[in-house]
Write a structure and sequence with these properties.
single chain; Rossmann fold; 2 domains; elongated; binds NADP nicotinamide-adenine-dinucleotide phosphate
């Protein structure tokens, strides 16, 4: 409420010097699929970000403060499931930062964060990890967030998107925004994708069916918060609490685990662990034939990962980048564009 805010923030009433800057970090995520979105749910997500930022924008117009920083989120850039309303609210902040900047406010900026590890809103929003994995990005630690923020201060655009990118393997669902960063990653086939461990030419059909089923059960159980053994492989998953957002997360995890592109209707048409397992086996069969033909030149699917590939899978590049950025900032060259801190408009 603008009137109340004006009274509360009056420097005289606060007995403080005049306000030098604004940091807007209010927000909620109600969550839910667009088809189920009610007006109340939409308003709940919009109120703190839209009404809140507009109130502050009016109280502190361009020119009246040194900085006007808005905490936004990558929900819109990543197309995160169940975050349609939240993405809209954050897109408003991004536009407001641009608007203020155009109005002569150099300190106006929206910072679109991924998830802050185990902190605040993201810690309570379900399914984020698998969604991030699918597009090849990670969350940020507080230290990384601070370093990215420091770097952002030297970036020209008013809207800065912070995305730690995992370039050790190509993502299942690459984002056009990050295409350039994955251009030099090894192609999926050459990288001996995750599916390879489920292939064994010595078995009938070339696919390790039991292992596939166990992996499907593990993924489903993890999403349901159960032990693998507790999941009845023949029972419809909807009966044990699998709802639409969880189903989507399971599909993404299956895509990652088996290096497959799977349809959105997967869990609808294959409602049990057993049915999902059978579908994965069928999907892997062509790769099994290919693998058998390439056998002499390919590493054994059972071979332990080499030290080098183990190191690659944990090297997210972001830590090194931030170290570099911190050094750059100290040297006063923070305005250099970085590949992993992606700057974007809108
Ligand atoms: N944590 C993350 O991983 C993450 C990722 C991306 C973006 N962000 C953004 O970063 C900001 C801070 O997030 P957080 O994780 O620190 O969230 P948080 O711990 O849940 O804090 C959100 C704050 O917003 C306030 N708030 C909610 N609705 C409000 C309203 N209508 N009017 C005034 N204040 C309201 C809450 O106040 P009460 O406690 O009094 O309700 C709370 O202090 C948010 O804008 C969020 O969208 C966070």
């Amino acid at each position: 409420d603008e009137k109340q805010a004006r009274v509360l923030l009056d420097p005289d009433a606060l007995e403080m010097p005049p306000m030098r800057g604004v940091l807007h970090a209010a927000g909620v995520i109600t969550g839910g699929m667009l088809a189920d979105l009610t007006r109340d749910a939409l308003e709940a997500d919009l109120r703190p970000k839209v009404a809140g930022s507009v109130t502050l924008h009016r109280l502190y117009p361009p020119g009246s403060v040194d900085f006007f920083v808005l905490f936004s989120a990558v929900a819109a850039q990543l197309g995160l499931t169940g975050q349609g309303a939240y993405a809209t609210a954050n897109a408003f902040l991004d536009a407001l930062a641009e608007h203020r900047r155009a109005d002569g406010c150099p300190g106006a900026r929206s910072l679109a964060w991924p998830a802050w590890r185990e902190t605040g809103l993201a810690a309570t929003a379900g399914g984020l990890e698998s969604e991030f994995e699918a597009v090849g990005v990670r969350d940020v630690t507080e230290r990384q967030a601070m370093a990215a923020w420091r770097h952002a201060r030297g970036c020209a655009p008013a809207h800065v998107v912070v995305l730690p990118v995992d370039r050790s393997r190509p993502p299942a669902r690459p984002l056009p925004l990050l295409e350039r960063l994955f251009a030099q990653a090894p192609p999926r086939e050459a990288a001996d994708g995750p599916a390879a461990r489920f292939l064994d030419p010595s078995r009938p059909g070339g696919v390790c069916e039991e292992e596939v089923l166990a992996e499907v059960a593990r993924i489903v159980a993890a999403e349901l918060g159960l032990a693998s053994a507790a999941v009845d492989r023949s029972r419809p998953l909807a009966e044990v609490g699998m709802e639409s957002i969880m189903a989507l997360a399971v599909r993404r995890r299956l895509e990652q685990a088996f290096a497959l592109a799977l349809p959105a209707t997967l869990l609808w048409n294959h409602p049990t662990v057993r049915a999902l397992g059978a579908r994965m086996v069928a999907e892997l069969a062509p790769a099994a034939v290919e693998s058998a033909q390439d056998e002499p030149s390919r590493p054994s699917p059972r071979a332990a990962p080499s030290v080098e590939s183990e190191a690659m899978s944990t090297d997210l590049g972001f830590d090194a980048l931030l170290d570099e950025l911190e050094a750059d900032t100290t040297a006063g060259t923070a305005s250099r564009t970085s590949a992993d801190v992606t700057e974007g408009r809108g």
